[in-house]
Write a structure and sequence with these properties.
The complex is a heterodimer of chains A (103) and B (163).
Chain A: H1 5-25, H2 29-53, H3 60-90
Helix pairs in contact in A: 1-2, 2-3
Chain B: H1 2-24, H2 28-48, H3 52-76, H4 90-110, H5 125-133, H6 139-160
Helix pairs in contact in B: 1-2, 2-3
Classes of the chains: A mainly alpha (103), B mainly alpha (163).
Chain lengths: 103, 163
């Protein structure tokens, strides 16, 4: 059986689900951020797969993937800066203990 | 065609195992290193999708820059000894992830995709440059992305600056 669009989409789904589990179930804020990067990568795979198999000559999915990468880089920089700033004041990055803004 | 299939399956298995290692390993530093491996596998997946420019960008930005940022943040926060334990939402999170994957798999396998038979564009770099900077392309989002990156850099500097 030759590899087609469905294989790439299922792979993207597997990676996204793993990332979602990590983002929901982890205490360490850096591991949560790493899981979010996994989810963004999974979405990028789906974008590029759609671009390759549905509209092979338009490349719009790849353009979207480039913009997702830009936003992911900005998100990683700001997120890690926030984590380091919290660590300076609270001496912890345990997401369950950072509860100042929790309802 | 068989070489393409073998490449896809090898890269997919490496990527999924590395992603599982990211969320399952106790050691945060090893989790970050397996995240780098997962990014490399995704770059290989882009090559099998004939997205050569995106594969290069993936290696440069994710494997080069973002992984360095993450490893630096792990070194600056001394949480490594405590590992990456799960919180009390572990079992509900697992169920939610399984349900989401079931939904995705059901939707993907039951949709009649209209796959085009034309071969993909190669190399993609000139076409992408035309789309990003050319007439009627995505020039406004490119400008907005530049402003977003500038705001992110300024925000990161302002957040970690000594008061």
């Amino acid at each position: 059986m030759t590899v087609g669009l469905e294989h790439y989409l299922i792979l993207a789904g597997v990676l996204f689900s793993i990332g979602l589990y990590g983002a929901l179930a982890k205490r360490n804020a850096i591991v949560i951020l790493m899981s979010i990067e996994l989810m963004l990568n999974a979405v990028n795979i789906a974008m590029v797969a759609f671009s390759r198999y549905i509209v092979p000559l338009l490349l719009t999915g790849q353009v979207f993937a480039i913009f997702i990468m830009v936003v992911a880089a900005a998100e990683a920089a700001v997120g890690l800066a926030i984590i380091i700033s919290i660590y300076r004041y609270r001496e912890t990055i345990d997401a369950t203990k950072i509860n100042l803004m929790k309802w | 065609m068989t070489g393409f299939n073998i490449a896809f399956w090898v890269l997919a298995v490496i990527g999924v195992i590395a992603a599982l290692a990211v969320v399952l390993l106790r050691d945060v530093f090893r989790a970050a290193l397996s995240l780098v491996l997962c990014f490399l596998a995704v770059a290989g997946i882009y090559i099998t999708l004939s997205a050569d420019f995106l594969a290069a960008v993936q290696v440069l930005i994710y494997v080069g820059a973002i992984s360095i940022l993450i490893i630096l943040a792990i070194m600056l926060t001394r949480e490594v000894q405590r590992g990456s334990p799960a919180n009390r939402l572990q079992i509900p999170a697992f169920i939610v992830a399984i349900l989401l994957f079931g939904g995705i798999a059901f939707a993907v396998l039951n949709t009649p995709w209209q796959v085009a038979s034309t071969p993909p564009l190669e190399p993609t770099t000139p076409a992408l440059a035309g789309l990003l900077f050319g007439e009627g392309g995505f020039i406004l989002p490119v400008e907005i992305a530049a402003v977003l990156l500038l705001a992110a850099i300024l925000g990161a500097i302002a957040l970690v600056r000594e008061k």
